[in-house]
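User: Could you check the structure of this?
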Amino acid sequence: MSDLGLIQIEVGAGVSIVLPLARERTLLSAAALWPASLSPAASYTCHPFCIDSHQALLCDALGMGVELALICLFPRFTYEDYQKTAEWLLSRTTHRPQVAVICGSGLGGLAEKVTQAQSFDYSDIPNFPLSTVPGHAGRLVFGLLNGKACVVMQGRFHLYEGYSVWKVTFPVRVFRLLGVDTLVVTNAAGGLNPKFEVGDIMVLRDHINLPGFSGQNPLRGPNEDRFGVRFPAMSDAYDRQLRKMAHITWKQMGEQRELQEGTYVMLVGPNFETVAESRLLRQLGADAVGMSTVPEVIVARHCGLRVFGFSLITNMVVMSYDRLEKANHEEVLEAGKQAAKKLEQFVSTLMSCIPPPCNAS
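Assistant: Sure, the predicted structure tokens are below.
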């Protein structure tokens, strides 16, 4: 039996029971723990399953015909789970990536620029969730991008798909175990800053983790010291040197529009923002809004990864009740298609600015 911890269950009338949480199906004796007034039986059967972001047990009290869902606030994945996935990938590819790239909605075309490519469908990778959103192909592509060893996520995961924050960020810790030291995150976002235009690229200088205000944080729960410290700093989440090099790269590309830089705010979605919400987000100091990225960045920084991120502004957020426009996912995908060539050149060129691994000879 692989115990993950203890769970205390309130069963009413001020009575609680304490049980070990196990991965395997387990028959537990509850004679000493189960309130006598509730059960004529001495045992019950537990079946592990998952509710949203929580590991749980479904308990059937024998002789009662009553099922109780016992929820435990432990992360779904253990260090060994991440290790198993990393080892599975390493055993099937000769590539040893230094950089991981997460492609946002409509931006997966970047993976087509990878040379010596070897890809794996998410459905074949142990523990990997599946992409369910249009514009996310659901493939992990290993190879070279402008000569840099990389792994590209052609499609990411979102909280609004029903995945827990631990599942959404699962690939990031796997990347760390693959040897990755730099994470590049991309996303499609709505523009809050009135100076922005559709098609602009905004380098992420900072973020606002709005779901975190209500407890949706990927680091919640027992800390895994093998990945990072209990209380990681986030004031330097986005690498200053890479941001500087991004502006230099942009000028070298000869683009007419200025490369923007600003603060990204994350909402869970899947609905787009109301006018009142948009106004509030702007007052908070946000320049762009989206439904992803922040959880991955938090986990990446916890793992000690260097992070660079940018948003493609696919629409201007509705800030006035007099405007008739409405945001929709189709325009997000179309904006990504229109900007694809520019983005591919930008990211590909930026690869040469990423310093070699510390252990490189």
